[in-house]
UniProtKB/TrEMBL annotation:
<dbReference type="Pfam" id="PF08700">
    <property type="entry name" value="VPS51_Exo84_N"/>
</dbReference>
<keyword id="KW-0653">Protein transport</keyword>
<dbReference type="GO" id="GO:0022617">
    <property type="term" value="P:extracellular matrix disassembly"/>
</dbReference>
<dbReference type="GO" id="GO:0007032">
    <property type="term" value="P:endosome organization"/>
</dbReference>
<dbReference type="InterPro" id="IPR011993">
    <property type="entry name" value="PH-like_dom_sf"/>
</dbReference>
<dbReference type="GO" id="GO:0006893">
    <property type="term" value="P:Golgi to plasma membrane transport"/>
</dbReference>
<dbReference type="Pfam" id="PF16528">
    <property type="entry name" value="Exo84_C"/>
</dbReference>
<protein>
    <recommendedName>
        <fullName>Exocyst complex component 8</fullName>
    </recommendedName>
</protein>
<keyword id="KW-0963">Cytoplasm</keyword>
<dbReference type="GO" id="GO:0035091">
    <property type="term" value="F:phosphatidylinositol binding"/>
</dbReference>
<dbReference type="GO" id="GO:0006887">
    <property type="term" value="P:exocytosis"/>
</dbReference>
<dbReference type="InterPro" id="IPR001849">
    <property type="entry name" value="PH_domain"/>
</dbReference>
<dbReference type="InterPro" id="IPR016159">
    <property type="entry name" value="Cullin_repeat-like_dom_sf"/>
</dbReference>
<keyword id="KW-0966">Cell projection</keyword>
<dbReference type="GO" id="GO:0031267">
    <property type="term" value="F:small GTPase binding"/>
</dbReference>
<comment type="subunit">
    <text>The exocyst complex is composed of EXOC1, EXOC2, EXOC3, EXOC4, EXOC5, EXOC6, EXOC7 and EXOC8. Interacts (via PH domain) with GTP-bound RALA and RALB. Interacts with SH3BP1; required for the localization of both SH3BP1 and the exocyst to the leading edge of migrating cells.</text>
</comment>
<dbReference type="InterPro" id="IPR042561">
    <property type="entry name" value="Exo84_C_1"/>
</dbReference>
Amino acid sequence: MSDSGASRLRRQLESGGFEARLYVKQLSQQSDGDRDLQEHRQRIQALAEETAQNLKRNVYQNYRQFIETAREISYLESEMYQLSHLLTEQKSSLESIPLTLLPAAAAAAAGAAAASGGEEGGGGAGGRDHLRGQAGFFPAPGGASRDSSGPGEEGKQRTLTTLLEKVEGCRHLLETPGQYLVYNGDLVEYEADHMAQLQRVHGFLMNDCLLVATWLPQRRGMYRYNALYPLDGLAVVNVKDNPPMKDMFKLLMFPESRIFQAENAKIKREWLEVLEETKRALSEKRRREQEEAAAPRGPPQVTSKAGNPFEDEEEDEPATPEVEEEKVDLSVEWIQELPEDLDVCIAQRDFEGAVDLLDKLNHYLEDKPSPPPVKELRAKVDERVRQLTEVLVFELSPDRSLRGGPKATRRAVSQLIRLGQCTKACELFLRNRAAAVHTAIRQLRIEGATLLYIHKLCHVFFTSLLETAREFETDFAGTDSGCYSAFVVWARSAMGMFVDAFSKQVFDSKESLSTAAECVKVAKEHCQQLGDIGLDLTFIIHALLVKDIQGALHSYKEIIIEATKHRNSEEMWRRMNLMTPEALGKLKEEMKSCGVRNFEQYTGDDCWVNLSYTVVAFTKQTMGFLEEALKLYFPELHMVLLESLVEIILVAVQHVDYSLRCEQDPEKKAFIRQNASFLYETVLPVVEKRFEEGVGKPAKQLQDLRNASRLIRVNPESTTSVV
């Protein structure tokens, strides 16, 4: 393709008013044949490939420029941040100079030159401590600075105030007495699941809490308050380096966790060390406060009694055990770290470890008094128990994944039972399994063949029910028997869910009675398998299906009656001619399968049968109805089935009786008597016998019907049927 042709085609395709449909229409009209269209297609394809290459080239060039620009911006941002940090340090140093000169000025006014020199030295030390705090560390209270605690504490407070004034939304922290800054520094926060960078933050570690503030890019050196975490509920976890993700550590505080990255390995190590040291110091401080609060109660009572010479010795003796009862040793290391350990276990989903710690504490405090320190510990632990319970409840909620079967819930259920939440565990377990069964039924594909779908439905439902029952017996063995009652109620509810899906597919879709009978038979067989674990739900499935089966029997009965009436209206009372021996043999087999063993006596020469077509068709249809109905039979359907049979038989018998009364031709009348004899002496005894075999007891209504010579008296002058 020439350059001029390609450029012309490109301009045409790039024009603003280009319409593809119109272009193709014109091209088809102008082309001479298939060859022209193929060549034009190749030209357009070559133009598309050229355009794609140009687009890739432009994208690559723009992408390189974008990377270079982003790198320059990053460098500029780093330099600006370093400049801001230097300016902040200079400002802090200038602010600390007047504070260091105040003691010297006071000493000079008093005329004590030597003392003023000493004060200046002390002020210089305070300034160095202050600058050191700006860089990161602050000396812990006590030690060499305990003698000059007044200025030292004020310096720490002033440093904390100066830094926190740069954090928006944390004014309430400045009102906490005894709070001072221990360590601070810049960090980068990452997303916990995908390790994507979230934001730049600044951490302020106080002696009792950790403040996290987000960096404000539009205001250099300023931060916005993000979160505040008490140290007694905070756990620190070192994150192993996995390049390019390195120099990271994780903070666990139920129910969340956050990951931060330090600037380098040294700063990360300093963060980990100072966090652990500060937490340890806070724990030791709380322990000493508890001991001091519990210690003074006993001695005043003993002193007062010992100082009173008029007290009896009998009154002195009970005082000693009262003092002893109030002393509960809570200084054990594992008890001091118990709330923190529980937080770690909950955050790491170590539910067994958390419950083991609770059992250990309950065993330790068993049969011991409850002074205020123990009550305070109990309050902290109860809060963790509440949090643990919420997590376990969420594990069993239907919102969680339902895969894994009933065994996937065993872990959460067993821990709830150990926590004394047996009833709640039972309720949540059954609710979880109900959602799983409902989801499994809903996800079944409705196949074209109803029987195939019912096989799958029964397999899914009864297998789930059997697995749930076995898991329930494993999890709740030895618990309150009320849980087993709850399971039976749940099983009945689940069976209702199954029957709804079953009936919708079998009975609402108007399937034939034979198909419905096979489906019900399959459901009964699966239900009987539950007897292996002592669970019999057969009576429940009978009670839930009885209405639908009654409707199916009534509907099929009406179909047979209408078909019989239609054949009766066209009855000519003629013998059947099956034309071929094969057809006669087939009819003999059909009648034999219906239970008519003496059908040979009603066959004539060649292929003739000495019975009416109406009577033969009625016999096959009635016996087929009886066989299918017996597959559906259970005691609640006894009268429904019996009444349906009587109604069907009455239609045929009444027609034969009426024909005998009205027919005048002797030959036809003899043929009608032969058909009546076949009904009374052959068909009805077979129906009665098969019904008794299927049900287990005889039916008096069928016996009366067979023994009656005339079922309905007909007016001799009447020429219309009473049916």
